[in-house]
Amino acid sequence: QKPTYQKLSNLEWLIFAVIACTTILSFVALDAGAQGDGFVHVYFLDVGQGDSQLIDFNGNQILIDGGPDSKVLQELGRVMPFNDRTIEAVVLTHPDADHINGLIDVLERYKVENVIENFLDRHDSPVYRKWNALKQEAMATQAEYAQRIELGNGAYLEIIYPLNPENEQSKTNNNSIISRLSYGENQVLFTGDTEAKIEKELAARKIDIDADFLKVPHHGSKTSTSEELLEAVTPEAAFIQVGADNRYGHPHPTVLERLESRGIKYYRTDTDGLIELILDGQNYVIVPGD
Fold first, then answer.
1. I need a surface site. Which of 11, 46, 66, 270 has the fewest CB within 10 A?
2. Which residues does 55 contact at the CB level (< 8 Å), separation at least 6?
3. Residue 8: its pLDDT value, please?
């Protein structure tokens, strides 16, 4: 039997249009509400064997690193409203492939207003050259100790390292930008691929790196997350960004033992997927998994 169709009256068309518009506006309101709830949202994006974190506070976003490939776009699409195509600041901790490659896709897809990086004269690669060409659309600045990126309402990201931008390290990992997010009494330390050499230097100089939460350096490699670092940071929880069954053996059992011996609960993107840390300035909630 063929289906029958009934022509809608003008009144019925009007009612239909109102319902449709209301539905669309409700979705827009949900997106706006997610960005304007007064909480700081820190996302540890599941980008495989690489690093990428997004800080979002009332629609102001800071992206730290972009992972090894375009998967970062998929992850950003999960946590940013579909109609938000602007990222206020991108921090490139250092130009290794598992941190910079995805940022090429970000620069091509999003409007990035500011770039903060450690300018490296000794480093050269095709992707780094492409990065330097694409970032011309943004305001690029050299990361400097005590520099702040304001998010509003007292929330800010502060640069901890490099202490002296002119003192370029021979190992790219040890040129990683270290930064700390502060909101009220909550603090999160982001470490790139910093190795024990720099961790111990900061501890010896008594640089304040205390924080409630730690992004574990270098994907949990045994070259990082020294006892000196953990003693100085004293985190309640830690986050390890790592790919499943990666060929490097990250995270190393020694690092996990150090965390466990101090009672530091840790989360891993290879087992937990995308991880969200929600801060209100005093309290926090950690939401692991998809």
1. 11
2. 40, 41, 42, 43, 61, 62, 63, 64, 151, 157, 181
3. 55
